[in-house]
Amino acid sequence: MGAPLAKKILVLGIGNILWADEGFGVRALETFNAFYEAPGNVSLLDGGTQGLYLVQFVEEADRLLVFDAIDYGLEPGTLKIVQGDEVPKFTGAKKMSLHQTGFQEVLSAADLLGAYPEKLALIGCQPLDLEDWGGPLTAPVRERLLQAAELAAVILDQWGAPCRRRAPGEAAAALLGNDIDFQSYETRIPTIRTGG
Predict the structure, then answer these.
(1) Which pLDDT score is estimated for 94?
(2) pLDDT band, residue 54 (cuts 50/70/90)
(3) Which residues contact 112 (CB under 8 A, 6 or more apart)?
């Protein structure tokens, strides 16, 4: 009899990078990819604001780790890990954006399809600003990206999927294209906004 198959793990970043701290989930996933190489049974996905379109990916995963901006009512930049049955409570606790309600529905749909992940974890960050259209992450949130990536590596290790920390200068395949990756988007020359 062969060795048991490795659990399929999905690491998902959700949010809208066009609304300042709302982009935390996507940027945390991008940071994780830049600093860590995950084993072959781990998939990384920029879920953006796709809502119910994510069901197909969630139902294929045995374990799911999510990065997202969550209004916990804490100090901006505070990271909080929620696991198991507590996760849906937080993704639907306050409707800060369309994608959060959508993600709660994604989990419900996966449950109805009998394909709910056996393990589920959420690394959430308290946002400071969700109203700055086209703006970058605020400093308190941006400063937590690496810590969020490190927390994800710890969780994956606990799930039996140890990640290798990349060497300094070691390049990773880009997750986002079209100049919306962190380096291109967040460090662009700001446009001058004129008042009406």
Answers:
(1) 45
(2) confident
(3) none
> Helices 145-158 and 24-35: crossing angle, nearest 10°?
70
- Neighbour order of strands in the sheet with 119-125: 42-48, 9-14, 63-69, 119-125, 79-83
Query: Diameter of the chain by CA atoms?
Result: 72
- Among 182, 24, 155, smallest CA distance to 82 is for 155
pLDDT of res. 27:
95
The residue extents of the domains of the chain are 9-187
Question: Does residue 35 contact residue 169 with C-beta atoms inside 8 Å?
Answer: no
Give strand pairing partners of 42: 9
- Token pair, residue 182, equals 């962190």
Q: Which of 136, 153, 157, 132 is nearest to 27 (CA)?
A: 136
- What is the CATH architecture assignment of 9-187? 3-Layer(aba) Sandwich (3.40)
Q: Which residue, among 76, 65, 103, has the nearest Cα to 20 in the 3D structure?
A: 76
pTM: 0.83
| pLDDT for 149 | 98
**Is there a contact between 36 and 165 (Cβ–Cβ < 8 Å)?**
yes
